[in-house]
Amino acid sequence: MRRRGRGPWWHNRFEDFGVRVTEPREVVMEVLLGTAEHLTAADVYVRAHELNPAIGLTTVYRTLDILLQMGIVQKFDFGEGKSRYELINNSQSKEHHHHLVCVRCKTIIDYYDFVDEELEFIQKTQDKLSEKYRFHIMDHVISFYGLCEQCKVKSQG
Amino acid sequence: MRRRGRGPWWHNRFEDFGVRVTEPREVVMEVLLGTAEHLTAADVYVRAHELNPAIGLTTVYRTLDILLQMGIVQKFDFGEGKSRYELINNSQSKEHHHHLVCVRCKTIIDYYDFVDEELEFIQKTQDKLSEKYRFHIMDHVISFYGLCEQCKVKSQG
DNA sequence: CTTCTATTGAAAATGATTTTCATTATCATA
DNA sequence: TATGATAATGAAAATCATTTTCAATAGAAG
Questions:
Q1: How do residues A93-122 score in pLDDT, each as one tens digit?
Q2: Is B140 on the interface with A (CB under 8 A)?
Q3: What residues of chain B lie within 8 A of the CB of A67, using their CB?
């Protein structure tokens, strides 16, 4: 699932999208591919910078936005005042997960469980939504909000 | 379902949460109760200001955060660079909805459909998550990302 | 090689949110 | 009802993520 023509898979995606494959964009992809989870733009910048110090923060922002529009990354906002990005792994993959957010201490727990039920539900909903709103759905986010164990205890005290 | 003691329902919630019921907080609640959908902090400020010009933006932010922690409002981030707030209506209510977000033009469509399937799925998942992560879940958000009709067409051109 | 256009990075601008801090309001109790 | 402790407030300043501007550069097509 790697090369076709001459380069990694995303080269074709860039081409299809009508943008050039450039050094900075390659580096940003490299960073995203080489890491685990939700990075902020600044995180990406720091790592990209290690690989190639010529790359600027502005370009990182711009590249992330392009990747977002292409459906290659997903953008999250957890109310931290900044966004986080991560590569989209197909919904079926084990990387797919969602979040439990504590509204008090703002802790975020990733959970990878219960994908079966989710898949079934998402499939149904997605199909209906696509049709009704003529929307091409590429991805989804599910987040639960509440109190983590510690904050729950504090509430009662 | 209104008064008990002397005041609207949220007075008790404030009390339970250990914070005072003050004029600015009442006004913020009034604004939220009197409007339809997702307001930014600035929106709330403007409206609160009309009702009582003494109220400051800082207090609006602080109040919204308290309401968030109490589970009275929900905070949304759609990647606009600012958050939006709205009162939480019970999941079963007709007000409950989710969002379709266009990653290209950033348009947001609220949808109110398919609550039945959702309720079933959410119930199951929520119960399991609560137990496994000892998390007290108060609310959830489901968002779909993709391309709206117009942007879909542009992509193909 | 030349031209046209996309891309880039630095710096400045923007804009939302938070922090600081002195003042004021509120509550429980003397 | 007066009082002292503490919560809440608003204005201004500080932060910090993100966007815009703009001149310089790189890449593709001829």
A1: 446 788 898 888 778 888 888 778 888 899
A2: yes
A3: none
Is the C-beta of residue B23 closer than 7 Å to nucleic acid chain C? yes
Q: How far apart are CA B151 and CA A18, in angstroms?
A: 14
Quote the CA–CA distance of A64 and A86 in Å, as a whole number.
9
More confident residue, B102 or B2: B102
List Cβ neighbours of A156 (8 Å cut-off, separation of 6 or more).
none
Q: What is the pLDDT of residue A105?
A: 79
Q: Is the CB of A23 under 7 A from strand D?
A: yes
- Residue B37 predicted with pLDDT over 80: no
Averaging pLDDT over each range in A47-61, B27-41, B91-105, which range is the top one? A47-61
pLDDT confidence bin for B154, thresholds 50/70/90: low
CB atoms within 10 A of CB B101: 21
Nearest to B29 by CA among B1, B70, B90: B70
**Mean of per-residue pLDDT scores for chain A:** 85
Give dist(CA B146, CA A68) in Å, integer.
10
Residue A3 has pLDDT above 50, yes or no: no
Residue A138 CA, nucleotide C19 C1', distance (Å): 40
List, in sequence order, the alpha helices (H) in B34-136: 41-51, 57-70, 115-133
- In this structure, the number of other CB atoms found within 10 A of the CB of residue A12 comes to 13
- Rounded Cα distance between A143 and B143, Å, is 9
Amino acid at B18: G
- Nearest-Å Rg of the Cα atoms of chain B is 18
